[in-house]
Design a protein that fits this description.
This protein is an all-beta fold and 403 residues long. It contains one helix and 30 strands. The protein folds into three domains: 172 residues, Trefoil (Acidic Fibroblast Growth Factor, subunit A) (Trefoil), CATH 2.80.10; 125 residues, Trefoil (Acidic Fibroblast Growth Factor, subunit A), CATH 2.80.10; 63 residues, no CATH class. It is globular. The termini are far apart.
Length: 403
């Protein structure tokens, strides 16, 4: 039996539900040969709430989650290695250095930073449904008892004395269960997996080549199947509305916000190759790395949700707060990444890129892509709005202006 991606229409209502607090999720410990990467989410307080431990030129800060740019994301990723029982080394992905702390006499406090000191060790303790990080050895000159990683209101990371304040509590968020936005230079690809019980190794697959009513099926995951790999691109970053497009790696198709009603009240997901035809999707984080994905219908004002429904089943009913492990929840699983460098300069005989009469022309023996500056694909044979576009050839990229 084939599973398909449908759009479920629903009117939202207010439903209250209560859930017991869960124990904090422990990180999976790493080796240098088998790293497991995590964001370290800082609970913080007021403006510091839900910032992430970020390395920057050796210093550590609590910053907002980096949504695009592999370098910026990697500065927020950490692996935890066992040194001895109960003691750990915490290593940053971008800098490949260890979390350490030294006493700063000018500040009168111990600053948490990066260093090549491989002997530094940290301990993990639970406080409610959070962890606290405690350095094993007091830095020389430091104040006795000030050993807990603490985010200051300024965003600076110091060692503090309290174990039970918002400023010291952290959570480990697995990188593989989250997503980052792609742009024209950095593309990160994901399998979009169902979180429905019994279907968690099945992912959205572009089957538009089959020429059937169903354009996207939920099929068993296959390694290196590009029809199952998607990047997430901001719809209009300047607007700050948070809307995104999902673009397939093999076809360049977008999952359209428009849908068509089929049998049994199914609304089949459509596709488009033109970003302007689709209104954009909202990704709403739920528990434990699961997400709901929805859009608002331009005509009816109804909210439409992605839903995995078996062929022949009656579609599920969306109930706010009660959709855990149903066809309404999805997860992101990393499937690859690529970074393009600038095209500079190639021999004229090898490639020629130019624009004329609102179109982009590429003369090259190699395959190429044309995207907006945010990574959304652009058709090769249509008039384009004025603006800057990106042409990619292999692992290189260049800008082209359309007037």
């Amino acid at each position: 039996m084939k599973q398909k991606l449908f759009i479920t229409l629903t009117l939202l209502s207010v439903v209250f539900c209560y859930r017991a607090a869960a124990l904090p999720q422990p990180p999976e410990f790493s080796t240098s040969a088998n790293p497991q990467w995590y964001y370290i989410q800082l609970q913080g307080s007021s403006a510091a709430t839900n910032s992430y431990l970020t390395a920057n030129a050796g210093q550590l800060q609590g910053n907002p989650l980096a949504e695009s740019g592999l370098a910026e994301v990697n500065k927020q990723l950490w692996r935890v290695e066992i040194v001895t029982t109960g003691s750990y080394r915490i290593v940053n992905k971008y800098y490949s250095e260890n979390m350490d702390a030294v006493y700063d006499s000018e500040k009168g406090a111990s600053t948490v930073l990066l260093s090549s000191n491989s002997s530094v060790q940290w301990r993990l303790s639970t406080v409610g449904d959070f962890y606290v990080l405690r350095i094993s050895v007091q830095p020389a000159g430091g104040t006795s008892g000030y050993v807990y990683l603490t985010r200051e209101a300024s965003g600076e990371i110091l060692l503090g004395a309290s174990t039970n304040t918002a400023a010291t509590k952290v959570k480990f968020v697995a990188f593989g269960n989250s997503y980052i936005l792609s742009n024209g230079g950095d593309n990160v690809w994901y399998n979009l997996l169902s979180a429905r019980s019994g279907y968690t190794d099945k992912c959205i697959t572009d089957v538009t080549a089959d020429n059937e009513a169903v354009k996207f099926a939920v099929l068993p995951r296959e390694t290196d199947n590009r029809y199952q790999q998607w990047k997430v691109v901001a719809k209009n970053p300047a607007s700050g509305n948070g809307l995104v497009d999902f673009i397939n790696r093999a076809t360049g198709n977008l999952i359209h916000t428009a849908s068509v009603c089929g049998e049994n009240a199914y609304y089949y997901s459509l596709f488009t190759t033109l970003p302007d035809e689709s209104s954009g999707w909202t990704i709403q984080a739920k528990n434990d790395g699961r997400y709901e994905i929805s859009t608002t219908d331009d005509v009816t004002g109804l909210t439409k949700y992605w839903n995995l429904t078996n062929e022949g089943e009656i579609p599920e009913v969306y109930l706010p707060g009660y959709n855990e492990n149903t066809g309404f929840e999805w997860t992101f699983d990393w499937a690859g990444e690529e970074t393009k460098t600038s095209l500079s300069p190639l021999p004229a005989a090898s490639v020629r890129i130019y624009s004329a009469q609102r179109r982009i022309y590429v003369e090259s023996e190699d395959t190429y892509t044309i995207t907006t500056i945010y990574g959304a694909p652009v058709a090769h044979d249509v008039d384009l709005p004025a603006g800057v576009y990106l042409v990619g050839i292999g692992n290189q990229i260049t800008k082209i202006l359309v007037k």
